[in-house]
Amino acid sequence: MLESLKLSLPLVQRLFPIDVMFALADMEKFIYYLPGTELDIRIQEGMPSRREEEYEQRWRQARW
Fold it and tell me: What gap in Å lies between CA 17 and CA 10, rounded to an integer?
């Protein structure tokens, strides 16, 4: 299932008329990240997914 999502999300991303990113996480860590063309909060696979404050700060600093 995860491999199917990794293959299909770049296609889904192209369907959006705006810049989008996708992040998949389990309860502990990020397992997949697809940045947008310009929108990139620099998540890496394996990073803990429970650091809401840090990701909110990255979101606010993202360049549009």
Answer: 13
Instruction: Give Cβ neighbours of residue 50 (< 8 Å, ≥ 6 apart).
Output: 28
What's the whole-model pTM score?
0.70
* Tokens 């491999």 -> residue: 3
Close Cβ partners of 3 (under 8 Å, ≥ 6 residues apart): none
Mean pLDDT of 5-33: 91
Q: Which residue has the tokens 């929108």?
A: 39
Return the residue matching tokens 């502990």: 28
Q: Residue 33: helix, strand or coil by DSSP?
A: strand
**Cβ neighbour number for residue 43 with a 10 Å cutoff:** 20
**Between residues 16 and 1, which one has the greater pLDDT?**
16
